[in-house]
Design a protein that fits this description.
The complex is a heterodimer of chains A (440) and B (347). By secondary structure, chain A is α/β, with parallel strands linked by helices. Chain A has helices spanning 2-25, 55-67, 80-92, 106-113, 121-131, 134-138, 163-168, 178-190, 204-218, 220-227, 237-251, 268-274, 288-294, 296-301, 337-350, 354-362, 373-379, 385-395, 403-406, 409-423, 429-437, and strands at residues 44-49, 73-78, 99-102, 141-142, 145-146, 149-151, 155-162, 194-197, 278-284, 303-306, 321-324, 327-331, 399-401. The chains are: A alpha/beta (440), B mainly alpha (347).
Chain lengths: 440, 347
């Protein structure tokens, strides 16, 4: 006991030291973690997000606290990025909140292998299997044990279109194949539009192109080999071809001449599409609400959406999706036994409860829940978008989690960095593969 | 008298006119020749005495040393301990979660072979030198202008100082949007060349960053020079006028030489400052496009908090720190401002 306490103290000091110096030297104003979120007795703590789609989840905490005066859940909300920076320090120093929020992927793997989160199989396996769509539920399992319980909306990357712009350029429908997409790019360019809006300044939108192309060309095995860390997995011909196709698109002027600095956080890409300056935008389903805010007329009449086109001769299935799966709750190992029980009980009662499902649908989010077709349909605003997302996710042959989350952090960052250089044509597809193989 | 308080007292009258930022202490009246001359006459004797008492380590008479405790505790807790921590971390492997394992000089070897670090090093040097070279002349001229008594000077000065009041994040977001090729000023007013993709073109990104950094920090450094120019005794200018020197000659023969120590102090601030630029670059462009603006502090942040390579990030942190300390020491030595001789003999 003493040993672990000491180790904890050392790690806490190290965490504070690292954050403090790194941030002081960089004169950064962001507040590093390190503050304790530990609860006492049967009380539990949770850090959640401030996004509007989280309103229904926040409501469940309020309801819970009214019903359980002896086992309060103290909720603190954070903006997305500051949460991501805070949570790892908190977990590493043994001061995690009882309920740990994640996006699945390598962080959950890290938490699990470091025994920072506990096995929830016996308590919640049946709940999750019964309620959640398989592709989303699967991400919560490590070593066949349930360690992360899905929460929130499902967010696949969608090929958004501006139907009015496409029509103006003489394009009748969203492209079904890669060659059609290339044709459409040429037509849009002739019509004086930016064919495809791409928020390259944020870097991660590049990943959607890479993930879809690799899968459409080589099928899911290629990416699986990479995720398994197989030697030279990035040299797969499908990866090389995908990178070549990306550079073909860049050469064709598909992304215009300003994609490198456009930021997805500023919604510059969605604004280009909504304002009729661009024809396509490959972006997560979460921007649906933004389109309405930027240009309500457009969202109602001219907004189109389609699956990423198939590649001729490719092995992949065009129903495959990439993007964010959902958020996930884990229960911290550092929390007291009673707090953990409170958290588990909360999850049992509130995993996609009716209140959360209805709330999500109301805010334009699609919950990855089995058998809610009717609910989705009745929540639809007439554009059919919610049904489209729900059906795509339900019918997807494979749902690849965003690569930067799925891959271990250092590999994910290297991928963002190298992929950007592919888009900027600073490196060749072969150089990309070589650089990425080194990270495996 | 303690060595600490004594040296401080000796140094202050000389250092203050050169470095003070506070507008109240730079009012022209406070530097009448009479108030300066007496202290400037005996600096060498006093600093000898200070050095002596340092050696003998005699106890002090002045205010209790406990007065320094709050500052020392803060410095220790928020600067020294983390510093030592990072130095130790630079010899370990740690992902922020698991156990911290010692791995000798592994990180150091790895970082010095990392093309990203080398690229960041090069960019940081360029950013530092160019932003110093751009800002210094502008700041000296602006500072001299603002120290004068021309009509509208105070009114204009307010505008020069405005950027100083904005948070760098706000500045970064504003410039990012102004320079946006699709939604920025260039597009809005139909000015073709201005609608260039300044931040998205790897060739112009770093220069754009230098421009915004300069815009942001010129007010502060101009303020320093303004204070320094006001410290220059009017008698010098009067004498020069009698000797027939015009304003330009006066600027080069009196103002510039008299700004020597301010120049040293300000250059140190500017250079050490540019070694640690982070927020502006991070918010504006995040190191892109294609690592064109991935300077050392940004590289450190991305390594530490995105790749969770705490060991590698700590190495970069230590490099930045060493660079900063080395530059300050060298500048201090070269400029001779560690001696701080009076420049006002005969004033």
């Amino acid at each position: 006991m003493k040993g672990t306490l000491k180790a904890k103290a050392i790690r806490l000091t190290a965490a504070i030291a690292a954050s403090a110096t790194l941030l002081t030297v960089s004169a950064c104003g962001a507040q590093p973690g390190g503050g304790s979120a530990k609860a006492t007795g049967a009380n539990a703590t949770v850090w959640s997000l401030t996004d509007s789609t989280w309103a229904s989840v926040q409501q469940t905490f309020e309801d819970w606290n009214k019903a359980n005066p002896d086992a309060q859940i103290k909720n603190e909300s954070f903006a997305n990025d500051s949460y991501k920076e805070k949570i790892r320090t908190a977990i590493g120093s043994g001061n995690a909140p009882t309920l740990v929020l994640s996006w699945g992927g390598s962080p959950v793997t890290d938490y699990w292998s470091n025994k920072n989160i506990i096995d929830l199989t016996s308590d919640l396996d049946s709940t999750v299997k019964e309620k959640v769509l398989d592709s989303v539920a699967a991400e919560g399992y490590r070593d066949d044990k349930l360690v992360a319980v899905p929460v929130g909306q499902v967010q696949p990357a969608i090929l958004w279109t501006n139907k009015a712009v496409l029509k103006e350029a003489g394009i009748s429908d969203a492209p079904q194949t890669w060659d059609e997409l290339l044709d459409d790019v040429a037509k849009l360019k002739d019509a004086g539009k930016t064919p495809i809006a791409l928020a390259g300044g944020s870097k991660w939108p590049y990943l959607m192109w890479a993930a879809y192309l690799i899968d459409r060309i080589g099928g899911p095995d290629v990416m699986q080999n990479i995720l398994d860390g197989k030697k030279d997995a990035w040299s797969d011909p499908a990866v090389i071809e995908a990178m070549t196709k990306i550079q073909d698109l860049v050469d064709a002027g598909a992304f215009g001449d300003s994609y490198q600095s456009m930021s997805a956080d500023d919604k510059k890409d969605t604004a280009l599409l909504a304002n009729g300056q661009a024809g396509f935008d490959l972006m997560g389903s979460w921007v649906y609400a933004d389109f309405g805010t930027i240009n309500a007329d457009f969202a109602k009449n001219d907004l189109g959406y389609a699956a990423f086109p198939a590649v001729e001769g490719g092995k992949g299935d065009p129903t495959m999706l990439t993007g964010n799966l959902a958020n996930y709750w884990s229960v911290a190992a550092s929390a007291g036994k009673e707090s953990q029980q409170t958290a588990i009980k909360y999850l049992k009662e509130n995993t996609y409860s009716d209140g959360i499902v209805d709330g999500l649908l109301k805010s334009g989010g699609v919950p990855p829940v089995k058998g809610i077709e009717d609910k989705v349909k009745s929540a639809d605003d007439g554009t059919g978008f919610l049904t489209y997302v729900y059906d795509s996710v339900k019918d997807a042959s494979n749902y690849q989690l965003s690569l930067d989350v799925a891959l271990p952090a250092d590999q994910g960052q290297a991928l963002l960095n190298n992929l950007e250089q592919v888009f900027l044509k600073q490196i060749t597809p072969q150089q990309f593969a070589d650089a990425m193989n080194k990270t495996l | 008298m303690s060595s600490v308080s004594k040296t401080a007292r000796v140094a202050t009258p000389h250092a203050a006119p050169q470095t003070s930022v506070s507008p109240t202490s730079v009012s022209p009246t406070s530097v009448s020749p009479t108030s300066v001359s007496p202290t400037s006459a005996a600096p060498t004797a006093q600093s000898h005495a200070a050095a002596k008492s340092k050696k003998t380590g005699k106890l002090h008479k002045g205010p209790s040393l406990w007065y320094t405790a709050p500052a020392l505790i803060f410095f220790g807790v928020f600067a020294l301990i983390p510093l030592v921590g990072v130095l130790v971390l630079s010899f370990t492997t740690w992902d922020g979660l698991g156990a911290i394992t010692f791995n000798g000089i592994g990180n150091w070897v790895r970082m010095f072979q990392d093309p990203l670090v080398m690229n960041a090093f090069k960019l940081t040097i360029i950013l530092t030198i160019v932003s110093w070279a751009v800002q210094t002349p502008i700041c000296i001229l602006l500072g001299t202008f603002m120290a004068g008594t021309q009509k509208y000077r105070a009114f204009l000065a307010v505008f020069y100082f405005l950027p100083l009041l904005f948070s760098s994040t706000a500045v970064a977001i504003t410039w990012k949007n102004l320079l946006d090729p699709n939604f920025g000023v260039g597009k809005a007013f139909g000015i073709g060349w201005l609608a260039h993709n300044w931040l998205g073109d790897p060739k112009t990104a770093l220069w754009t960053v230098i421009f915004v950094v300069s815009w942001c920090f010129i007010p502060l450094h101009s303020l320093l020079y303004q204070g320094a120019v006001r410290q220059i005794p009017q008698t010098m200018y009067e004498a020069a006028t009698i000797d027939g020197a015009g304003p330009i000659r006066q600027f080069f023969s009196i103002t510039l030489p008299q700004l020597k120590y301010t120049f040293a102090t300000d250059s140190t601030l500017m250079i050490v400052g540019s070694l640690t630029y982070f927020d502006l670059v991070y918010v504006m462009i995040g190191g892109g496009p294609g690592n064109a603006t991935r300077i050392l502090p940004l590289d450190m942040y991305l390594k530490g908090f995105k790749s969770y390579d705490m060991g590698g990030a700590s190495v970069v942190g230590v490099i930045i720190l060493a660079l900063g300390i080395a530059v300050s020491l060298i500048l201090n030595k070269v400029s001779g401002s560690d001696k701080m001789e009076s420049q006002m003999e005969g004033a």
